[in-house]
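User: Show me sequence and structure for the first protein, then do the same for the second.

Assistant: Starting with the first protein.
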Amino acid sequence: IYTAGAIRTGTMTWILDRLAEAAQKGKTVFGMMPHGIVEQFTGKHSTFPGFMVDNYTDVSNQLMNAGLKIMFTGHFHATDITEQQSGNQTLYDIETGSIIVYPCAYRLITYIQDSALIITTKHITNVNYSGIPPDQTFPQYAESLTRIAADTLFTTTLMTGKQITYNDTAWH
């Protein structure tokens, strides 16, 4: 599915200015955006281009060089943490999927100033929704819907090479 995302030049300038101000004041900044800025696997940007921000290598380098260490993302709906390093700098892309996509994860973040970021991943195991078949738990139901979506996405994208749109999917 191609769902492009980009950071405009003026927006990047504004972000870099805010990061510079934060650095002068000794503040830690966490970023948040839908699209990934560090690949979770080699070739993600070419296989699934709409899930990475346009010019992700340049974007991640600019942000990392400006002092950003943590970016929360989630557009690919995976639960993963990946990093990019350059010299003594590291940028972490902390991706968390939607709570309705199996395994229905959410994160609790504890920041210990200048020391640690503790990330706890939890899973929703029960919801009050009458649409779940009586023979399935919420995680089973969510997994079945995720499999339908993944089958459509991967079969179409990998087997035919066609980038599908939202309207082409079985889950819309």
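Switching to the second protein now.
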Amino acid sequence: SSGGAADSAGTVPAVDVNMGPNATNAMNAAAAKIDELESWIKIASAPTEINGMCDAASEHLENEHQGLQKVLALDVEWDTKKNRQGMVIKSERTALIPIGYEDSIDGHISALIFQVSRLQKLPDRLAALLRDQDITFVGAGVSGDLKKIGRDFDCGRFVSKTNFVNLGSFA
């Protein structure tokens, strides 16, 4: 028999699937989209990688936004523990810090995703980016996100001076 049923040995026979030209075109288009996404989404977890990406973002803002407002989108992600009623009983440390900005040359949005859950302190260049008084950070609840970063990485003193605009009321 065919169609994926397992035989007595528990193995599933191979099924030859002939994809027509439409399915092949759809798969090629999906692969191209993934390649495009990979070109503007960068993920880093090592402090040296994070520092390098922050330097590149700072340089981009400096070069591409001369005389313009420097704006970065900021979000923070972390896990929570909940009781049986669904109430949060514990917030874990910051796990991810996504930062986004528009590339003024081609209009694409670049996304930097920093995996910081294993770090005891923020990498130097990320800390410098967050305290840069020439940058405004935007996001839904961004003030709370900045406070969370400050608590988790013992840097509340400089994060409290960060420029931000909460966009939650626009959501």
